[in-house]
Design a protein that fits this description.
The complex is a heterodimer. Chain A is mainly beta. Chain A is 0% helix and 50% strand. Classes of the chains: A mainly beta, B mainly beta.
């Protein structure tokens, strides 16, 4: 079965960067897109962007352009989310999720990123 | 900008039918999906392509579409159905994909 295992929680100071990983197993890594979705405490879901693991091409939500980067490593079936210039309102649980068409089939367990001085 | 609008909350008694709506201008031409999220857990896909159920999702959960509104229906509501529900759709902007979520609806089982 599909498994997405994310890295552990992070605590960062404002202005710093964070890198979150998502290791996939149970399917052909390059056959599905990977998205990143985040959820601030008590809030709804917010789409951050999508990456095609087969060629590494990524598209980012307009809100995050300029300070987000998504990459993939086919040798380890892992995708990464880099978010820079962190602010307090970046405090959120960040999820990776797969899609083959338009829906998100499987989700990682989530990684809490806390931005605090 | 493209938005999906959901009611913040819906309340029903056990055994009744819960209906959660999601409205958006692009829904007539784009499929919608629904996710269930319980506290402290990741979302789970329960409906895709407006009305399709993934394997393992009970038949009492269904989806429908009419014009600019999609509806999630949960028949015979049980205590375990108490959760937040999110609709989701996708569109494109300048030939790039774009994903949008509704604001979420908290289903309370009285």
């Amino acid at each position: 079965q599909v498994q997405l295992v994310q890295s552990g929680p992070e605590v960062k100071e404002p202005g710093a960067s964070v890198k979150v990983s998502c290791k996939a197993s149970g399917y052909i890594f390059t056959s599905s897109y990977m998205h990143w979705v985040r959820q601030a405490p008590g809030q709804g879901l917010e789409w951050m962007g999508i990456i095609n693991p087969s060629d590494g091409r990524a598209v980012y939500a307009q809100k995050f352009q300029g300070r987000v980067s998504m990459t993939s490593d086919t040798s380890t079936s892992t995708v990464y989310l880099d978010l820079s210039s962190l602010r307090s309102d970046d405090t959120a649980v960040h999820y990776c999720a797969t899609s083959t068409v338009a829906e998100f089939d499987s989700w990682g367990q989530g990684t809490l990123v806390t931005v605090s001085s | 900008s493209y938005e999906l609008t959901q009611p913040p909350s819906v309340s029903v008694s056990p055994g009744q039918t819960a209906r959660i709506t999601c409205s958006g201008d692009a829904l007539p031409k784009q499929y919608a999906s629904w996710y269930q999220q319980k506290p402290g857990q990741a979302p789970v896909l329960i409906i895709y392509k407006d009305s399709e159920r993934p394997s393992g999702i009970p038949e009492r959960i269904s989806g429908s579409s009419s014009g600019t509104t999609v509806t999630l229906t949960i028949s015979g509501v049980q205590a375990e159905d108490e959760a937040n529900y999110y609709c989701q759709s996708a569109d494109s902007r300048d030939s790039s994909p774009y994903v949008i979520f509704g604001g979420g609806t908290k289903l309370t089982v009285l």
